[in-house]
Design brief:
This protein is α+β, with helices and mostly antiparallel strands. The protein has four helices and 25 strands. The protein folds into three domains: 88 residues, conserved putative lor/sdh protein from methanococcus maripaludis s2 fold, CATH 2.40.420; 138 residues, Elongation Factor Tu (Ef-tu), domain 3 (Beta Barrel), CATH 2.40.30; 75 residues, Helix Hairpins (Orthogonal Bundle). Helix 2 packs antiparallel against helix 3. The longest helix is centred in the first third of the chain and has 36 residues.
Protein backbone atom coordinates (compact mmCIF):
# COMPACT_ATOMS: atom_id res chain seq x y z
CA UNK A 1 0.00 0.00 0.00
CA UNK A 2 2.90 2.33 0.72
CA UNK A 3 4.31 1.61 -2.69
CA UNK A 4 1.18 2.91 -4.43
CA UNK A 5 1.20 6.11 -2.34
CA UNK A 6 4.85 6.86 -3.28
CA UNK A 7 4.37 6.19 -7.00
CA UNK A 8 1.39 8.49 -7.41
CA UNK A 9 3.29 11.81 -7.09
CA UNK A 10 5.95 10.56 -9.50
CA UNK A 11 3.37 9.61 -12.13
CA UNK A 12 1.60 12.93 -11.70
CA UNK A 13 4.87 14.83 -12.23
CA UNK A 14 5.68 12.79 -15.37
CA UNK A 15 2.24 13.43 -16.85
CA UNK A 16 2.60 17.13 -16.10
CA UNK A 17 5.93 17.17 -17.98
CA UNK A 18 4.39 15.51 -21.04
CA UNK A 19 1.49 17.93 -20.96
CA UNK A 20 3.87 20.87 -20.93
CA UNK A 21 5.81 19.57 -23.94
CA UNK A 22 2.70 18.93 -26.07
CA UNK A 23 1.52 22.52 -25.66
CA UNK A 24 4.20 23.79 -28.22
CA UNK A 25 2.78 24.06 -31.82
CA UNK A 26 4.80 22.28 -34.60
CA UNK A 27 6.50 24.55 -37.23
CA UNK A 28 4.31 25.14 -40.32
CA UNK A 29 5.72 23.55 -43.52
CA UNK A 30 4.88 25.32 -46.81
CA UNK A 31 4.60 23.59 -50.14
CA UNK A 32 7.70 24.32 -52.32
CA UNK A 33 7.06 25.39 -55.89
CA UNK A 34 8.88 25.30 -59.19
CA UNK A 35 9.03 28.79 -60.61
CA UNK A 36 10.32 31.05 -63.36
CA UNK A 37 10.95 34.76 -63.32
CA UNK A 38 9.27 36.94 -65.94
CA UNK A 39 11.75 38.69 -68.21
CA UNK A 40 10.67 40.81 -71.17
CA UNK A 41 12.64 40.96 -74.38
CA UNK A 42 12.07 41.76 -78.03
CA UNK A 43 9.93 39.05 -79.56
CA UNK A 44 11.62 36.81 -82.06
CA UNK A 45 10.25 34.52 -84.72
CA UNK A 46 12.40 31.42 -84.92
CA UNK A 47 11.93 28.71 -87.54
CA UNK A 48 14.01 25.69 -88.45
CA UNK A 49 14.47 24.31 -91.94
CA UNK A 50 16.00 21.12 -93.24
CA UNK A 51 19.00 21.95 -95.43
CA UNK A 52 21.46 20.08 -97.62
CA UNK A 53 25.07 21.08 -98.26
CA UNK A 54 25.78 21.54 -101.95
CA UNK A 55 28.56 23.10 -103.97
CA UNK A 56 27.91 26.51 -105.44
CA UNK A 57 29.55 25.43 -108.70
CA UNK A 58 28.93 21.91 -110.04
CA UNK A 59 29.85 21.21 -113.66
CA UNK A 60 28.95 18.23 -115.84
CA UNK A 61 31.97 17.05 -117.80
CA UNK A 62 31.33 15.66 -121.30
CA UNK A 63 33.30 14.57 -124.37
CA UNK A 64 33.19 16.95 -127.31
CA UNK A 65 33.18 13.94 -129.66
CA UNK A 66 31.36 10.63 -129.51
CA UNK A 67 32.82 7.17 -129.25
CA UNK A 68 33.38 4.06 -127.17
CA UNK A 69 34.76 4.55 -123.65
CA UNK A 70 38.00 2.60 -123.26
CA UNK A 71 39.12 3.97 -119.87
CA UNK A 72 37.63 5.65 -116.81
CA UNK A 73 40.13 7.09 -114.36
CA UNK A 74 37.95 8.44 -111.52
CA UNK A 75 35.48 7.14 -108.96
CA UNK A 76 32.64 8.74 -107.03
CA UNK A 77 33.88 10.99 -104.24
CA UNK A 78 37.41 11.24 -105.61
CA UNK A 79 39.18 14.61 -105.46
CA UNK A 80 40.58 15.83 -108.76
CA UNK A 81 42.71 18.73 -109.95
CA UNK A 82 42.19 20.80 -113.04
CA UNK A 83 43.61 18.92 -116.05
CA UNK A 84 43.38 15.43 -114.52
CA UNK A 85 42.23 12.71 -116.94
CA UNK A 86 38.69 11.58 -116.21
CA UNK A 87 37.96 9.19 -119.08
CA UNK A 88 39.20 8.19 -122.55
CA UNK A 89 37.31 7.07 -125.65
CA UNK A 90 38.65 5.09 -128.61
CA UNK A 91 40.64 7.48 -130.79
CA UNK A 92 41.56 5.18 -133.72
CA UNK A 93 38.97 6.61 -136.13
CA UNK A 94 39.90 10.16 -135.20
CA UNK A 95 43.61 9.48 -135.73
CA UNK A 96 42.82 8.06 -139.18
CA UNK A 97 40.76 11.13 -139.96
CA UNK A 98 43.61 13.38 -138.82
CA UNK A 99 46.09 11.41 -140.93
CA UNK A 100 43.86 11.75 -144.01
CA UNK A 101 43.49 15.50 -143.36
CA UNK A 102 47.25 15.80 -143.12
CA UNK A 103 47.70 14.10 -146.51
CA UNK A 104 45.14 16.39 -148.07
CA UNK A 105 46.95 19.37 -146.56
CA UNK A 106 50.22 18.21 -148.10
CA UNK A 107 48.54 17.91 -151.50
CA UNK A 108 46.99 21.36 -151.12
CA UNK A 109 50.35 22.83 -150.18
CA UNK A 110 51.90 21.23 -153.27
CA UNK A 111 49.21 22.74 -155.52
CA UNK A 112 49.72 26.08 -153.82
CA UNK A 113 53.47 26.01 -154.45
CA UNK A 114 52.90 25.00 -158.06
CA UNK A 115 50.39 27.82 -158.58
CA UNK A 116 52.73 30.29 -156.95
CA UNK A 117 55.60 29.19 -159.23
CA UNK A 118 53.38 29.45 -162.34
CA UNK A 119 52.21 32.93 -161.42
CA UNK A 120 55.76 34.19 -160.82
CA UNK A 121 56.83 32.72 -164.17
CA UNK A 122 53.91 34.43 -165.90
CA UNK A 123 54.88 37.73 -164.30
CA UNK A 124 58.41 37.38 -165.70
CA UNK A 125 57.18 36.44 -169.20
CA UNK A 126 54.64 39.24 -169.15
CA UNK A 127 57.47 41.71 -168.67
CA UNK A 128 59.09 40.85 -172.01
CA UNK A 129 55.74 40.39 -173.80
CA UNK A 130 56.01 36.60 -174.16
CA UNK A 131 52.55 36.08 -172.61
CA UNK A 132 49.43 38.11 -172.65
CA UNK A 133 47.93 39.89 -169.68
CA UNK A 134 45.05 37.41 -169.79
CA UNK A 135 47.42 34.48 -169.26
CA UNK A 136 49.02 36.25 -166.33
CA UNK A 137 45.59 36.95 -164.85
CA UNK A 138 44.60 33.30 -165.09
CA UNK A 139 47.82 32.32 -163.34
CA UNK A 140 47.06 34.86 -160.59
CA UNK A 141 43.55 33.43 -160.11
CA UNK A 142 44.94 29.89 -159.93
CA UNK A 143 47.41 31.05 -157.31
CA UNK A 144 44.70 32.68 -155.18
CA UNK A 145 42.51 29.61 -155.43
CA UNK A 146 45.32 27.28 -154.42
CA UNK A 147 46.25 29.58 -151.53
CA UNK A 148 42.69 29.59 -150.21
CA UNK A 149 42.38 25.82 -150.61
CA UNK A 150 45.63 25.29 -148.72
CA UNK A 151 44.42 27.50 -145.84
CA UNK A 152 41.08 25.71 -145.71
CA UNK A 153 42.78 22.34 -145.66
CA UNK A 154 45.06 23.56 -142.87
CA UNK A 155 42.00 24.38 -140.77
CA UNK A 156 40.51 20.97 -141.53
CA UNK A 157 43.71 19.32 -140.35
CA UNK A 158 43.67 21.39 -137.13
CA UNK A 159 40.07 20.34 -136.49
CA UNK A 160 40.98 16.68 -137.01
CA UNK A 161 43.87 17.06 -134.57
CA UNK A 162 41.58 18.70 -132.02
CA UNK A 163 39.15 15.82 -132.29
CA UNK A 164 41.95 13.42 -131.46
CA UNK A 165 42.62 15.50 -128.34
CA UNK A 166 38.93 15.52 -127.46
CA UNK A 167 39.04 11.75 -127.02
CA UNK A 168 40.67 12.38 -123.63
CA UNK A 169 38.34 14.04 -121.12
CA UNK A 170 40.11 16.25 -118.57
CA UNK A 171 38.77 18.01 -115.48
CA UNK A 172 37.89 21.63 -116.13
CA UNK A 173 38.29 22.62 -112.45
CA UNK A 174 39.47 21.45 -109.06
CA UNK A 175 36.86 19.66 -107.00
CA UNK A 176 35.19 16.42 -106.00
CA UNK A 177 33.53 13.89 -108.28
CA UNK A 178 29.85 13.89 -107.32
CA UNK A 179 28.45 11.75 -110.11
CA UNK A 180 29.74 9.17 -112.60
CA UNK A 181 27.43 8.26 -115.48
CA UNK A 182 29.64 6.12 -117.72
CA UNK A 183 31.19 2.66 -117.65
CA UNK A 184 33.89 0.93 -119.66
CA UNK A 185 32.70 -0.12 -123.12
CA UNK A 186 29.78 2.31 -123.17
CA UNK A 187 29.28 4.35 -126.33
CA UNK A 188 28.65 8.00 -125.57
CA UNK A 189 27.55 10.88 -127.77
CA UNK A 190 29.20 14.26 -128.00
CA UNK A 191 27.96 16.47 -125.15
CA UNK A 192 26.56 13.60 -123.09
CA UNK A 193 27.32 14.18 -119.35
CA UNK A 194 29.91 11.69 -118.16
CA UNK A 195 31.24 12.96 -114.82
CA UNK A 196 30.04 15.75 -112.50
CA UNK A 197 32.62 17.76 -110.55
CA UNK A 198 31.67 20.04 -107.66
CA UNK A 199 33.92 22.79 -106.34
CA UNK A 200 34.05 21.94 -102.62
CA UNK A 201 35.84 25.21 -101.83
CA UNK A 202 32.52 27.11 -101.94
CA UNK A 203 29.85 25.06 -100.14
CA UNK A 204 26.40 26.44 -99.43
CA UNK A 205 23.14 25.38 -97.81
CA UNK A 206 20.09 24.72 -99.94
CA UNK A 207 16.62 24.96 -98.34
CA UNK A 208 13.05 25.07 -99.61
CA UNK A 209 11.04 27.90 -98.04
CA UNK A 210 7.23 27.58 -97.82
CA UNK A 211 5.23 30.23 -99.61
CA UNK A 212 3.68 31.65 -96.43
CA UNK A 213 7.07 32.21 -94.76
CA UNK A 214 8.88 33.81 -97.67
CA UNK A 215 8.78 37.45 -96.51
CA UNK A 216 9.68 36.51 -92.95
CA UNK A 217 12.56 34.40 -94.26
CA UNK A 218 14.01 37.31 -96.23
CA UNK A 219 14.13 39.47 -93.07
CA UNK A 220 15.75 36.84 -90.85
CA UNK A 221 19.23 36.23 -89.56
CA UNK A 222 20.55 32.72 -90.05
CA UNK A 223 22.62 30.11 -88.29
CA UNK A 224 23.25 26.52 -89.28
CA UNK A 225 24.66 23.33 -87.90
CA UNK A 226 25.36 19.92 -89.40
CA UNK A 227 23.49 16.82 -88.32
CA UNK A 228 26.86 15.19 -87.67
CA UNK A 229 28.05 18.12 -85.49
CA UNK A 230 24.96 19.60 -83.84
CA UNK A 231 27.02 21.35 -81.18
CA UNK A 232 28.89 23.52 -83.69
CA UNK A 233 26.72 26.39 -84.92
CA UNK A 234 27.95 29.04 -87.34
CA UNK A 235 26.49 32.07 -89.08
CA UNK A 236 25.33 31.96 -92.69
CA UNK A 237 23.90 34.59 -95.02
CA UNK A 238 21.33 34.48 -97.79
CA UNK A 239 22.97 34.48 -101.22
CA UNK A 240 20.00 34.01 -103.50
CA UNK A 241 16.39 32.93 -103.48
CA UNK A 242 14.34 31.71 -106.42
CA UNK A 243 12.04 34.25 -108.02
CA UNK A 244 9.43 31.59 -108.78
CA UNK A 245 7.99 28.82 -106.62
CA UNK A 246 8.41 25.19 -107.59
CA UNK A 247 5.37 23.96 -109.49
CA UNK A 248 4.83 20.82 -107.41
CA UNK A 249 5.88 21.81 -103.87
CA UNK A 250 5.04 25.56 -104.04
CA UNK A 251 8.27 26.31 -102.19
CA UNK A 252 11.05 28.73 -103.01
CA UNK A 253 14.59 27.37 -103.32
CA UNK A 254 17.05 29.44 -101.25
CA UNK A 255 20.84 29.21 -101.14
CA UNK A 256 22.88 30.43 -98.20
CA UNK A 257 26.65 30.57 -97.71
CA UNK A 258 28.77 30.66 -94.53
CA UNK A 259 29.79 34.20 -93.57
CA UNK A 260 33.32 32.89 -93.08
CA UNK A 261 34.80 30.51 -95.62
CA UNK A 262 34.90 26.92 -94.38
CA UNK A 263 34.97 23.40 -95.75
CA UNK A 264 31.78 21.38 -95.42
CA UNK A 265 31.01 17.80 -96.48
CA UNK A 266 28.99 17.92 -99.68
CA UNK A 267 25.63 16.20 -99.44
CA UNK A 268 25.51 16.43 -95.64
CA UNK A 269 22.22 17.09 -93.85
CA UNK A 270 21.97 20.28 -91.83
CA UNK A 271 19.52 22.42 -89.90
CA UNK A 272 19.05 26.09 -90.74
CA UNK A 273 17.78 28.33 -87.92
CA UNK A 274 16.10 31.52 -89.15
CA UNK A 275 15.47 34.17 -86.50
CA UNK A 276 13.65 37.44 -87.05
CA UNK A 277 13.25 40.18 -84.44
CA UNK A 278 9.58 41.13 -84.47
CA UNK A 279 8.18 44.63 -84.47
CA UNK A 280 5.62 43.72 -81.80
CA UNK A 281 5.84 44.83 -78.15
CA UNK A 282 8.23 42.82 -75.93
CA UNK A 283 6.94 39.58 -74.47
CA UNK A 284 8.13 37.09 -71.87
CA UNK A 285 8.61 33.41 -72.50
CA UNK A 286 7.41 31.13 -69.70
CA UNK A 287 7.00 27.34 -69.65
CA UNK A 288 3.71 26.21 -71.15
CA UNK A 289 2.92 24.39 -67.88
CA UNK A 290 2.57 27.78 -66.15
CA UNK A 291 -0.50 28.77 -68.19
CA UNK A 292 -3.96 28.30 -66.69
CA UNK A 293 -7.33 30.06 -67.01
CA UNK A 294 -9.60 32.40 -65.09
CA UNK A 295 -13.15 32.80 -66.35
CA UNK A 296 -12.08 31.28 -69.65
CA UNK A 297 -9.21 33.71 -70.13
CA UNK A 298 -5.47 32.93 -69.87
CA UNK A 299 -3.77 33.53 -66.54
CA UNK A 300 -0.76 32.49 -64.46
CA UNK A 301 -0.22 31.97 -60.75
CA UNK A 302 2.07 34.73 -59.47
CA UNK A 303 4.05 34.14 -56.27
CA UNK A 304 4.09 37.47 -54.39
CA UNK A 305 6.90 37.60 -51.81
CA UNK A 306 5.89 37.95 -48.17
CA UNK A 307 7.96 39.27 -45.33
CA UNK A 308 10.36 36.38 -45.53
CA UNK A 309 12.51 35.71 -48.56
CA UNK A 310 11.64 32.03 -48.71
CA UNK A 311 7.84 32.33 -48.67
CA UNK A 312 5.29 33.88 -51.00
CA UNK A 313 1.53 34.15 -51.44
CA UNK A 314 0.11 33.00 -54.77
CA UNK A 315 -2.48 35.00 -56.66
CA UNK A 316 -4.06 34.38 -60.05
CA UNK A 317 -2.89 37.03 -62.54
CA UNK A 318 -4.38 37.53 -66.06
CA UNK A 319 -2.00 37.57 -69.03
CA UNK A 320 -2.16 38.29 -72.74
CA UNK A 321 -0.87 35.44 -74.87
CA UNK A 322 1.36 36.63 -77.73
CA UNK A 323 2.28 33.27 -79.19
CA UNK A 324 3.19 29.66 -78.61
CA UNK A 325 6.37 27.70 -79.04
CA UNK A 326 7.26 24.02 -78.62
CA UNK A 327 7.34 24.04 -74.81
CA UNK A 328 6.80 27.69 -73.97
CA UNK A 329 4.20 30.41 -74.28
CA UNK A 330 4.78 34.13 -74.89
CA UNK A 331 2.86 36.30 -72.46
CA UNK A 332 2.52 39.93 -71.51
CA UNK A 333 0.95 41.53 -68.43
CA UNK A 334 2.95 40.61 -65.31
CA UNK A 335 5.57 43.09 -64.17
CA UNK A 336 9.25 42.49 -64.94
CA UNK A 337 10.74 40.07 -62.43
CA UNK A 338 7.43 38.56 -61.31
CA UNK A 339 7.76 34.98 -60.10
CA UNK A 340 5.26 32.60 -61.72
CA UNK A 341 4.49 29.03 -60.74
CA UNK A 342 5.49 26.58 -63.47
CA UNK A 343 4.33 23.21 -62.09
CA UNK A 344 1.30 21.95 -60.19
CA UNK A 345 -0.84 24.98 -61.08
CA UNK A 346 -4.02 22.95 -60.59
CA UNK A 347 -3.15 22.64 -56.88
CA UNK A 348 -2.80 26.39 -56.34
CA UNK A 349 -5.44 28.52 -54.61
CA UNK A 350 -5.67 32.28 -54.04
CA UNK A 351 -3.82 33.31 -50.90
CA UNK A 352 -1.96 30.00 -50.55
CA UNK A 353 1.42 30.47 -48.88
CA UNK A 354 4.19 28.55 -50.62
CA UNK A 355 7.95 28.12 -50.28
CA UNK A 356 10.14 29.60 -53.01
CA UNK A 357 13.46 27.71 -53.23
CA UNK A 358 16.49 29.88 -53.92
CA UNK A 359 17.83 27.40 -56.48
CA UNK A 360 16.09 24.96 -58.79
CA UNK A 361 16.94 22.71 -61.68
CA UNK A 362 15.03 24.78 -64.24
CA UNK A 363 16.58 28.14 -65.07
CA UNK A 364 14.43 31.31 -65.20
CA UNK A 365 12.55 31.68 -68.48
CA UNK A 366 13.57 34.30 -71.00
CA UNK A 367 11.86 35.64 -74.11
CA UNK A 368 13.50 33.85 -77.00
CA UNK A 369 10.84 33.72 -79.69
CA UNK A 370 8.32 36.18 -81.01
CA UNK A 371 4.65 36.10 -81.64
CA UNK A 372 3.58 34.64 -84.97
Amino acid sequence: MKTAIVAAPVAFAFLSLLSGCSSDKPAEVHRPIRWARVHYDQTRDTNRYFAVVQARHEVDQAFQVGGKVVARRVELGQSVRKGDVLAVIDADDYRLSADGAQRQLEAADARFRQAESDWKRMQALKGDGSVSASDEEHAKNAFDTASAAAKAQSRTFELAQNQVGYTVLRASQDGVVTNVRVEMGQVVAAGQPVVAIADDAEPEFVVDVPEERLEQFKQSRFQAFLASASGETFAVELREIAAQAAAQTRTYRARLKPTQARRLPLGASATLVAERVGAEAPAASVPATALTQRNGKPAVWAALPMGGKATARVELMPVAVRGYRNDAVLVAGPREGTIVVTAGVHKMAPGLVVAVPDEQVASPARAQAGAP
